[in-house]
Each structure stands twice: as structure tokens, then as C-alpha cells.
Design brief:
The chain has a single domain (20-147), classed as Arc Repressor Mutant, subunit A (Orthogonal Bundle), CATH 1.10.10. Helix content is 59%, strand content 10%. It has helices at residues 8-16, 19-37, 45-54, 61-68, 72-84, 106-126, 132-148; strands at residues 59-60, 88-93, 96-104. The protein has a 3-stranded antiparallel beta sheet with strand order 1-3-2. A hairpin with a 2-residue loop joins strand 2 (88-93) and strand 3 (96-104). Helix 2 (19-37) packs across helix 6 (106-126) and helix 4 (61-68) crosses helix 5 (72-84). The longest helix is centred in the C-terminal third of the chain and has 21 residues, at 106-126. The protein is globular, with a radius of gyration of 18 Å. Residues 158-165 have low confidence and may be disordered.
């Protein structure tokens, strides 16, 4: 990766701050800007996470809740919200009538595409100091850490699927 010029007052931060602290700071900034950018999309953060999780395909309701890190009562309420807006569909699993399968609807995909554009603007602000190559490498490294970086071998929660990956 190409060397990035860092102003003198930030060199100490770069050299002595653990990655987890830097990621936490970055996460707060990104979370704040993401939540500020969501209102025009009509989605709340938890709705967005759910649609992003469903982007890769239908999921059993229980598995979806586990992937999102929320309990069975919360997933029902969350899916009720999304279903009321026709962003997801739930159906009984034909092989096990006790299970529900959740799938993103066409309207949900369209809303997610609109949200992707809003998130791209936030990404541009976040990575404005990086070259296109550095941006690509940064996102690739973040994706790798999310998917493989946990010490116990588990992927970090909320691993997301990109539409073009």
C-alpha cells in the first residue's frame, strides 16, 4: 500500500493507538454519518442491516436473527416493520412448517439500491484522502478482517455482502 502523508500532529496517533481504538473511532464517525444519511431512504439502521443480510438470499428467520445478533422477539418485530412496508416477505418453510423463510422483496431490493447510493456518498467522505487504489485495498482489508479477523475463528457480527462482489 502506498505511503500516506500524515500531518505531524497525527503521527503520534498513528504510531501508538491500537487498531481496535482506531476502528472504534472510525466506527463512531461512520455510524453517525450513516444514521444522518438514512432518513431520505426511509430506513432505520436495524432495517438496513436486515436488508443487507438478506441481499445474498433467503434466510430462516431464526438464522437471520442469529446473524444480526438479536433475539427471537426482536426479529419478529423487526420483520413485522419491514413486511408492513413490503420490503421483505416471510413464508413457511415447506420442509419444516415450524420455520419461516425470510426473503427481500423487489421493493426491498430497490430501496437497498437507493440506500447504496447514499452509503457511497458517506464512503466518499470517509475515504476522501485516499487514492482509488488505496480505497480498494482499505475496503478489501476491512472485509477480510470482518470475515476472518476474530481471534476465536468466528467471523465478526454483521458480515455484509456487497452487490457486486
Amino acid at each position: 500500500m502506498a505511503k500516506v502523508d500524515v500531518p505531524d500532529d497525527r503521527r503520534e496517533l498513528r504510531s501508538c493507538t491500537p487498531a481496535t481504538v482506531l476502528l472504534a473511532k472510525l466506527g463512531r464517525w461512520a455510524g453517525r454519518h450513516l444514521l444522518d444519511g438514512l432518513p431520505p431512504t426511509g430506513l432505520k439502521g436495524r432495517h438496513l442491516n436486515t436488508l443487507l443480510e438478506l441481499r445474498s438470499g433467503p434466510r430462516a428467520q431464526q438464522a437471520l436473527g442469529e446473524a444480526l445478533g438479536i433475539d427471537a422477539c426482536q426479529i419478529v418485530g423487526l420483520l413485522n416493520d419491514l413486511e408492513a412496508e413490503e420490503l421483505v416477505q416471510r413464508r413457511r418453510d415447506p420442509s419444516d412448517r415450524r420455520r419461516h423463510i425470510v426473503e427481500i422483496s423487489e421493493l426491498g431490493r430497490a430501496r437497498l439500491e437507493y440506500t447504496d447510493r447514499a452509503m457511497a456518498l458517506i464512503d466518499d467522505r470517509l475515504m476522501s484522502g485516499l487514492t482509488p487504489e488505496q480505497r480498494e485495498e482499505f475496503v478489501s482489508l476491512l472485509r477480510f478482517v470482518v470475515e476472518h479477523g476474530a481471534a476465536d475463528g468466528d467471523a465478526a457480527p454483521d458480515a455484509l455482502t456487497c452487490p457486486n462482489s
